[in-house]
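Structure in, sequence out. Go:
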């Protein structure tokens, strides 16, 4: 594909297509698209969007707008909506197109496909059926937020969107709260305050970063503890797209009562080995030592049940 730069306002320049791209070849192409600034797209992504036989998107309006910005015509090609509410109905049609040897470009609402969007089922089924699946790397809200957060990036955990219900959200927080990694969360701007309130019930001093409107005109990055940022957020919440990051938890004392308490909370719902592994990771202890204690606790529990019987 060739591009020419055309004037677009005072000093701004935009890319427009002058020739058609060569076909990318049969297969499913997962195209990362901008999370804000429209120019944050790769030339390879534009090539594939210009030449693919079928275009699929979580939000076809967003993709159509992106095509218009970059001067990419549809030329009669199909533009297929593929989202949570119709994925099961649309997936067979997309797989059928792949079986006919066509190239399909899939774009999520914004950012990298399969990160908190329905595309993973499509990619899984396409791969299972033996079709080529290719990723076109590019913008990612999670990684952009991690980059500017100032939090450790050597180990991080993306946990997606929290549950809306308060009780489920508290259980969800407990599932990752002890993980020794920077935690990345996508949250509705209206519920950020509730998320911080729930975390402050147990870890008010957790290092926290809120990234709002990344790559857009009103981009903002807020640093502080969970309690400090909670105090800064208005009751009605924030505006715009939000990513919340939590730093690593404070070290927990590895005394026997603490270990027994942590294991006791897990042994009723997990196998001994898995419970021991999770607690060992949380406390930074050898798994063998924690496993021995877990086995001892399991035996104590079984002995107590026999006496009661």
């Amino acid at each position: 594909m060739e591009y020419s730069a055309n004037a677009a306002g005072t000093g701004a320049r935009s890319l427009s297509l002058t020739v058609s791209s060569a076909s990318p070849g049969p297969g499913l192409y997962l195209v990362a698209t901008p999370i804000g600034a429209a120019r944050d797209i790769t030339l390879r992504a534009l090539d594939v969007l210009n030449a693919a036989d079928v275009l699929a998107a979580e939000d076809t309006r967003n993709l159509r707008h992106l095509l218009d910005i970059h001067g990419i015509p549809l030329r009669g090609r199909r533009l297929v909506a593929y989202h949570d509410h119709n994925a099961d109905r649309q997936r067979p049609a997309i797989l059928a197109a792949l079986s006919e040897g066509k190239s399909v470009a899939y774009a999520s609402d914004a950012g990298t496909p399969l990160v908190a969007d329905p595309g993973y089922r499509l990619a899984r089924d396409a791969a299972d059926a033996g079709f080529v699946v290719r990723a076109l790397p590019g913008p990612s809200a999670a990684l952009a937020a991690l980059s500017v957060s100032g939090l450790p990036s050597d180990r991080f955990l993306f946990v997606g969107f929290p549950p809306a219900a308060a009780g489920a959200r508290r259980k969800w927080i407990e599932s990752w709260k002890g993980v020794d990694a920077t935690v990345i969360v996508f949250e509705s701007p209206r519920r950020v305050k509730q998320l911080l309130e729930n975390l402050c019930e147990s870890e008010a001093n957790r290092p926290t970063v809120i990234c709002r409107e990344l790559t857009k005109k009103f981009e903002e990055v807020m640093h502080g503890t969970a309690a400090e940022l909670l105090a800064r957020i208005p009751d009605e919440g924030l505006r715009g797209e939000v990513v919340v990051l939590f730093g690593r938890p404070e070290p927990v004392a590895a005394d026997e009562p603490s270990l027994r308490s942590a294991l006791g909370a897990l042994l009723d719902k997990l196998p001994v080995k898995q419970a021991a592994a999770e607690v060992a990771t949380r406390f930074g202890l050898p798994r063998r030592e924690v496993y021995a204690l877990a086995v001892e606790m399991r035996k104590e529990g079984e002995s107590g049940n026999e006496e009661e019987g």
